[in-house]
Amino acid sequence: MILPASTYRAYQEFAAGEREPVCDPFTLYVGDSREIMASLPECSVDAIVTDPPYELGFMGKAWDRVGVTYDIATWQAALRVLKPGAHLVAFGAPRTYHRLACAIEDAGFEIRDCLIWIFGSGFPKSLDVSKALDKAAGADREIIGEKRTPDGL
After folding, report:
1. pTM over 0.70
2. CB 69 within 8 A of CB 53
């Protein structure tokens, strides 16, 4: 099982006796998933649930541009280690999910169902929707008062 850091912390708490087990015993691997999958025998994994980098270069961060998400070889390695009938669940960014799905399908997986997580994201852009609608309609707004700041602006 290849797990994210938060799950690894939960495993550490379990190992230290600070937490009850939440599933049957499992093997935890920490490292580069490509290297770990290469070391595993064929048909040895029951399921893969992963949230790979979205490859968007989020805020210029290198961790979100590592090249594994759209690399067909990554998903071929996953297919090799999965047992027959096992499932892969991979999360992707809404605007680039299609690239992830294509790479997974090109690796040999059958795409059956898509789960969609609809959420608001990004940084808010101080927009007054009513003003934007009036502007788009060409309507003039009546000025009902003015407020000046202490520096006279």
Report:
1. no
2. yes
